[in-house]
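Reviewers of the previous submission asked for a worked example of the structure-prediction workflow described in the proposal, so we include one complete record here. The input consisted solely of the amino acid sequence. No template or homolog information was supplied to the procedure at any stage.
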Amino acid sequence: MIDFPLDAAFQAKVDWTRAFVREHVEPLDHLWPAPTAPYDRSLTKARAILKPLQEEVRRQGLWACHLDSDLGGPGYGQVKLVHINEILGRTNWGPVVFGCQGPDSGNSEILARFGTEAQKDRWLAPLLAGEMYSCFSMTEPDGGADPTLFKCRAVQDGDDWIIEGEKWYSSHANFCDFLIVMAVTDPEAAPYERASMFIVPADAQGIEFVRETGLFTEPLGGKGGHPYVRYNRVRVPASAMLGPRGKGFMVAQSRLGGGRIHHAMRTIGLVQKCLDMMGERAQSRALRNGPLSKIQGVQYDLADSWIALQQFRLHVLYVSWLVDQGREDDLRLAISGLKVATATIAKDVVWRAMHLHGALGVSNEMPFAHMLMTAAMLGLADGPTEVHRSVVGRLVARQYQAAEGPNPSEHLPSRRAAALRLHPDALD
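From that input alone, the workflow returned the following C-alpha cells.
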C-alpha cells in the first residue's frame, strides 16, 4: 500500500515553513515583485533582508532540501519535499530563501553527481552556500527543445576548448557567476552522443548578451532574466568539461527529471493559492440574489478546481514516492505524465480564478498576469507539453499487444463464443 505519512518532527518543520513563508517571505513579493528580483544583487535593501531569512532557514535544517544526504543535503526524500515545496510555490522569493531555486537546484545536482573534486570546491560549495548563482545554457534559437538539432560547437584547441554559438533563454545568465553550457563536441557521433557540458565562468572573454529577454509580463527592453547569449570563441580549459565527453544529453536529463518534479510540487502551492482566492471572492462578492457562491456556474468552477487540486497533489506524491523507492523504470512515463498535468491544471485553475474576479482579475492590482505567465512557462520549459504527451502516448502504447485475429479482444460475439466453448451446457 502506498502511504505518505509525516512523522511529528517533520510535520513541525512543515508547520514552521508555512508560518515563516506567510509572515516573512511573502512580503518580499510585494516589495520587490519582479520575477528576477530574488537574483538581482543590485537590490541592496532586499539582500539585507534576505540574508537573515536564509540563516534562519539553515538553523531549521531546511536549507537546500532538494539534495540527498550523499550529495550534501538533508536527505528528506521527494515525498517530504512535496510538503515544503508546495508552500514555497505560493511565493516568488521562497525558493531563494530556502536555497532550492532553479536553475541552481538542478545545477547543484549535476555538479554533485558529475563534477570533479576541483569543480565541486570551486563551484558547488559556494552555490550550495547561497554565495553564487548559476545558469543552465542549453536551449538554442533554432533547436528549441530538440538537442539533436543544436549548433553551438566546442572545438578542442590543445588543452582548451573553444565554444562558439548561440543559446536562447539562458535563465539568470545576467545574474550568475557561472554557466553550464551544452555544446556539440562530436558532430559525427550518434544524435544523443554528440554534445558535452562545460562550466563557463560568467566573466569569461567572448560572452555576449544579444538581448536580455524578459517574460511577457515585463516591459520590452527591461532587465529581463532570460538572456539570448552568443558565445564568441569562448575559451575554457579541458578541466571545465562537466561529466564525460559526449554525455551532455545524459547529464541534462539527470537534472531535468528532478526539475520537472519540483516544478510540479511548487505548482500545488500556486493552484492552492488560486483556489483560496476563488473561495474568498465567491463569498465576498455580493450580487442581487446573494454572494457569487450561490451561482451554480461558480460552484462548478470551485468544484472542478478543488477536484483537480486533490488529484494533482496525489499525482505529485505518487511520482515523488516512485523516486524515493528507486523505481527508475517507471519514472520516464510518470514524470512526462506529471509534466503534462502540471501545465494543464495550472492553466485551467488560474484562468477560472482570474475570470471569477471579473475586471479586477485582469487588472495590475491582482497577481493573475504573473500566474498566467507561470502556467504558460510550465507548458514550455523543460520540454513542451506536446512533447511529453507524445512520450506518454508512446510508452503507454508499448504496454499493449495487437489483438489476435480480426476482432478486438473485447468483441462481444467472440467473447460469447469463447464462453460457450468453455461451458457448452451453460445455456438451454
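The CA atoms of residues 181 and 384 lie 21 Å apart. We consider this example representative of the routine output the project will generate in years two and three.
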